[in-house]
Amino acid sequence: MDFLNNILRYPLQEIPFVVITLLIAFTVHEFAHAYTAYKLGDPTAQKQGRLTLNPIHHLDPLGTILILIAGFGWARPVPVNRNYFKNPRAAGVLVSIMGPLSNLVMAFIGYGLWYFLVFKNGGSGVPSFVMDFLRYFTGINLVLMIFNLIPLPPLDGYRIIEDLVSPSLRAKLTQYEQYSIILFLLILVTPLDQYTISPLIDHVSQFFFMRFSDIFSVFS
Q: Active-site residues: which are they?
């Protein structure tokens, strides 16, 4: 038990809340990519069984384990064939951004439920496990949204940048993509994370928590 507590990002007794949140968050995130691509004319994800809300088709073992240890991770990327799009660059941005956007929407819903069930009513009659779950559900979805918008491959933020820049710059980015992936992995598995990704996620998460609070305080 002590060994697990030492390596896990979250308390062992609260891992079930994290796992359930990940099953929902990763699945909806990847489904949002697949559904958007499908609606824009790309059937690739649908043909590969990714147009589904079944978590088994979306989870990545390493990305799931990493979020339990480091606090952030990823699911299996949805395959996208840009050749099906009428406007590849605009469609590419939309497909890429829908995953993080889905996490933001889920975080907003989770915070709203927490606000009205726990904060506004003082938690009266609400089981403690519901409070804990909503806290993790909101926080992890915010982390996934912010993390996936970091402009490093293979994250959504990088794919968005690829489609926003000129074709010539995109070609140059592709040349250095393998080195960017190595840099990204080095940041994740070394103490550099404590000076780069973690502070970024903490600060942006606090910003969104404050904005959520401002929005729902209108109903007080």
A: 30
